[in-house]
Every structure is written in structure tokens, then in C-alpha cells.
Amino acid sequence: MSRTLLAGCVAWPAEFEERYRAIGYWSGETFGEMLHQRAQHSPTKLAVICGSRRWTYGELDQRADRFAAGLLKLGIRARDRVVLQLPNIAEFLVACFALFRIAAVPVFALVPHRRTEITYFCRFTGATAYLIADHDGGFDFRQLARQVCADVDTLQHVIVAGDAQEFVAFDSLYAEPCRIEGPASSDIAFLQLSGGSTGIPKLIPRTHDDYLYSVRASVQICGLGPDSIYLCVLPAAHNFALSSPGSIGTLYAGGRVVMTRLPSPDTTFPLIATERVTITSLVPPLALIWLDAARCCEQDLSSLQVLQVGGARFAEEAARRVGRLLGCTLQQVFGMAEGLVNYTRFDDPAQLICGTQGRPISPDDEIRIVDDEDRNVPPGQPGHLLTRGPYTIRGYYRAEAHNAVAFTSDGFYRTGDIVRMLPSGHLIVEGRSKDQINRGGEKVAAEEIENHLIAHPAIHDVALVAMPDADFGERSCAFVIVRQRPGVVDAGALAAELLQFLRERNIARFKLPDRIEFTDSFPKTGVGKVDKRALREQIARLVSAPHQL
Ligand code: AMP
Ligand code: DBH
Questions:
Q1: Are 390 and 26 in contact (CB under 8 A)?
Q2: CA neighbor of 146 nearest in space, from 130, 161, 124
Q3: Given 387, 411, 433, which residue is the final one in a domain?
Q4: Which one of 23, 104, 423, 471 is at 20 to 30 Å from 183 when CA atoms are compared?
Q5: Domain residues for 306?
Q6: Residue 240 Cβ contacting ligand 2 at under 6 Å
Q7: β-pair partners for 387
């Protein structure tokens, strides 16, 4: 059954693979087959709703087949990497399933990514195609594609949903379905992005087998079935919205996916009412906005049964308001694109649903909570979360050196999260050891932004840290040491210049520091490293007592 993996990917050791197959976690099914079966079973059932478009399973399946044929005609082959950067539109699902069917490997970029990130993804994966929408949120992705094409030699095709201009129009690719040699279930299905903590974003290879297991188990835990209607609010390519159980889980269950490009209550509440949405997933800042809006909402939200919140820690106080204000059940979700996903269960007592981030999907998710020396901490104590299991990767794509530190020698992934486990097995996320800012679910790797800032001639050194924020949980603050003495520079003007400098580096906007603080020196740890914990405390004090500024 198993064959060589895409170069640069790390397989599970044979004994684990055999075990996961023997237990039935890895069932041998592929995404393409899964959709095909659903379409054969209920061809006329609605599968996707996107604006005025309403596609049945039969239609979605056919579109995926016809689009797959078009991709083959264009010259895209099995194992070719295709960077996919689409907003929440129905084409996202067509493109994914078509690429899955021809065994090409989508690389899931996020919509806010700009030239620097997209060029990097294309170069690093040797992508031959880049798939975009014409525009979204006022931004013209064709303009971005022109820049990326100039940067990347391997890129041969740009495919555009909407007005394609000089590029290949998405709709023009639909061709007569042809015989397709599909992937093996053990093949890499796609590369997902890691929130990361290093200067270079990491790519996460997931197989049909391992991902479909997490989807199937999520569907069961979250009670999805043919009557489920999932509103896809978060970026469709994000692991949460894709698989926990997300749009793939909804299709797996034979339910209906409603796509929305806009997450705000003015758009989503009427959609919930008219489409009778039963479940959706949000990050905490968005959940807070929804809760506020629900106080004086005139829409009928009574169809909503489950609100999932995850991606960042959801405050217990807010968690307790969900049932009252939205009239539905809360489910907390603590997951990661690398694998492990935890859910609170519907029959958990309220204290666990509101006060914990859930427990793992699988009885075979191995959890270790350890101290700095990798020794198990006493039960109930906080420590570093390490995990290994049937859907947690054993290595990032083409990252041998990083893998040696991100995984233990026996294959546990170092999540970078500090957690505590209750006797029930539920985890509480207490904090983080990885050098990352979690901006309400959007992850910013400190090192990545520090590398950009340090390229500015006025900067001697920089440290990016998280500062507490009522809405986002965290925002980012850059502490900056300038080459000239701080008293000599005009801080306001330099801060504005640094932000402009970062914008010109063409990175996603959510990565720009929310605040810049100039300083003479950094606090140091015993061994002389920048003491980021002290910096975090410093900025937390400033934020909590703004009159001192
Ligand atoms: P990513 O690497 O982008 O897939 O992000 C995964 C990380 O998001 C986890 O390792 C956690 O740090 C964070 N995360 C996800 N869900 C939650 C949650 N419910 N509570 C706290 N942190 C979370
Ligand atoms: O933050 C995440 O990456 C995340 C959150 C919830 C995730 O990957 C998931 C569920 O699957």
C-alpha cells in the first residue's frame, strides 16, 4: 500500500503506520473518492452555497472532475505543487478536490499573504501554478501574481477565479472529464501552513489517510450529519475551517457548506437566518463581536446549534455568555495544523466546556506534559505539551534541521504550548513557550518580523513580543533599539517610517507591529539572551496603566 512520499516529507515509522491501519484510523480512503461516493449516494442534495450559487453534490463532484481534467490539460501533474490563495468562495472547494484527484499538492496560502510570503511559498515548494481570485477586500491579486511570476522561475501558470486578464480563467479550465490516475491514500494530499515561530514559515505535509481520520473523528465528535449546515466564516484554507470538522467534515457527513467572504454579523447573521445554519467556527475576537451583536439582533438565529471557538484562548467569562446570547452550545477547539485537535464534548459539564480547551480526538493521541528537560511534570501541573499520534506529523516539509528541534527523537511534536491537564483529560492552555504572537488566532512568528525590521538602517536591534489586548487576546509590540540615541530621533516619525518600511516589504498586514516602543537596551536573561518575558511584563504594565505613558 505505501509508496515513496513526496520528497522532503517524513513518514511515520512502519510500526506506527501498521498500527494505525490495523485499528482502522487510516482507512485507505482519499478525498477524491470520498466526494465521489457522496455524489453517487445523493447527487441532488445541496453541497455548497456561495452567494446565489447553489451546487448539489452531483454538480460539485462533476466540477471537480472537469476542473481536474483542465488542470491535466494545462500540464499540471501528480505531485506538482500549486499555491492556492482563494477567499471563501465555492471555487475553493472545486480547486481543492480537483487537485486532490490528480494528486497535485495544493499549498494553502492565506488571503492576507503578499509578495514576500507567496514568492517564498512558490520558490520553496517549486510550485508550477498559482491559483487566485481576481480580487478580494479591495486587493487585486492579479497584480500580485505579476510580481510573483517575475520572482519565481518555476511558476508556469496563474489561474484566476473571476476576471483573469492575461492569465488563465478558472472557468475556462472546465473540460471533458477524463480517466485520472488518483493518489494513494498514503500520499501527501496538501501542504498546510504553520503559524510558526521561526524566520521562515514552515509547511506541513498531510496525507489523505491521516487527515481523513481527523475529519471522520471530528464529524463524529461534533455530531455532524446530512442535516448539518456549516457556515464557513474563517479562512477556508485554515486547518480549523477546513477540517475541525469544517467544510471537508461537512461534506464528509453529507451536509451543506455555506461560504461567506465577510465574517461580520451584518453579513453572517442574515445568512444564518436564511440558510438555517446549524454550526460554525470562529476565533475569539470574532466570537466577541458576534456576542455583542447578538444582544440587539433582529435575525432569527434559532437554527444555530453549535458555535465552535478556537485558534486562541477564549476567555471563560465570554464562553459563559455564548449559550445565553446566541442560544447555542459552545464547543472549544484547541488545534494545530501540525495535527492534534482537542474538543470539549457536548455532554461535558459547563465548567469543562467554558473553562478548558477540550480533550484530544483520538485514544491514540499521545500527550506528554514536560518540564524544560523533557521530564514529565506531576499530574495537573503546567508544562510543555508534546504530542504524537495518528494524525500528527512527524516532520515539516523540507526542514531537516528544524525538525531536529521541533520533534523529539522518538517523534513527539513540540507544540510550543504550555498546558495543564485535568483528571478528565481536558487541557487548559496556560501560555506558550514558542516565540510567537497569537493575534486572536492569527499567528505571527516574532523572528520573521524581527528579521524584516532589523534590515532598516536606523535599527540596531529589535524584539517583537505579545502585549495583552481585550479584543484580540494579544497584539504585537516591537521594542526597538535605534542606532542613534532615542532622545535624538523623533519617535513618532520613526515609528511611522518603520511601518511604511514593513509595508514595502510586502508582508501580510496582520504581521505589522500594533505598537512600537523605543528603548536604549533590552533586559537580558542569565545567559545574556534578550529577556522577552521581562519585555512582555513591561509592555503589559504600560498597557494596563496607560496614564503612565
Ligand atoms: P497553527 O500553528 O497556526 O496551526 O496554530 C496552532 C496554535 O494555535 C496552537 O499550537 C496554539 O498555540 C494556538 N491555539 C489553537 N487553538 C487554541 C485554543 N483554543 N486556545 C489557545 N490556543 C490555541
Ligand atoms: O489554530 C489552529 O491552528 C487551529 C485551531 C482550531 C486548528 O488548526 C484546528 C482547530 O484544527
A1: yes
A2: 130
A3: 433
A4: 23
A5: 210-433
A6: yes
A7: 367, 413
Does 241 share its domain with 268?
Answer: yes
Please say which residue of 433, 452, 481 terminates a domain: 433
Ligand 2 site, residue 310, Cβ cutoff 6 A:
yes
Task: Give the closest residue (by CA) to ligand 1 atom 8.
Answer: 311
Counting ligands in written order, the one closest to the CA of 356 is: 1
* Total number of domains in the chain: 3
Residues 423, 487 within the same domain: no
- Taking only the tens place, the pLDDT of each residue in 117-158 is 999 999 999 999 999 999 999 999 999 999 999 999 999 999
Per the CB < 8 A criterion, the answer to whether 388 and 366 are in contact is yes
User: Are 246 and 367 in a shared domain?
Assistant: yes
Which of 334, 402, 415, 432 best tests ligand 1's pocket when mutated (most atoms within 8 Å of CB)?
Answer: 334
pLDDT classification of 549: cutoffs 50, 70, 90: very low
Whether residue 343 has its Cβ less than 6 Å from ligand 2: no
Looking at the domain assignment, is residue 76 inside a domain?
Answer: yes
**3-class DSSP state for residue 50?**
strand
User: Which H or E run contains 18?
Assistant: helix 14-23
374 — alpha (psi -120 to 50), left (phi > 0) or beta? left
| Shared domain check, 487 and 361 | no
Paired sense of beta strands 256-259 and 46-50, if any = parallel
Counting from 1 in the atom list of ligand 2, the atom nearest the Cα of 214 is 11
Residue 417 beta carbon below 6 angstroms from any ligand 1 atom: yes
Report which ligand 2 atom has the smallest distance to the Cα of 333.
6
pLDDT score of 301 more than 90: yes
Residue 70 in contact with ligand 2 by CB distance below 6 A: no
Which bound ligand lies closest to the C-alpha atom of 416? 1
Report helix angle 57-74 to 90-101, nearest 10.
60
Q: Is 356 in the pocket of ligand 2 (CB under 6 A)?
A: no
Question: Is position 192 within any domain?
Answer: no
* pTM for the predicted model, two decimal places: 0.95
* Centroid of ligand 2 to alpha carbon of 281 (angstroms): 10
Regarding whether 464 and 347 lie in a shared domain, the answer is no
Residue 500 · residue 492 · CB < 8 Å: no
Question: Is 194 touching ligand 2 by the criterion CB < 6 Å?
Answer: no
As a 3-state breakdown, the chain gives helix, strand, coil percent values, each rounded to 5, of 35, 25, 40
CATH no. for residue 88? 3.40.50.980
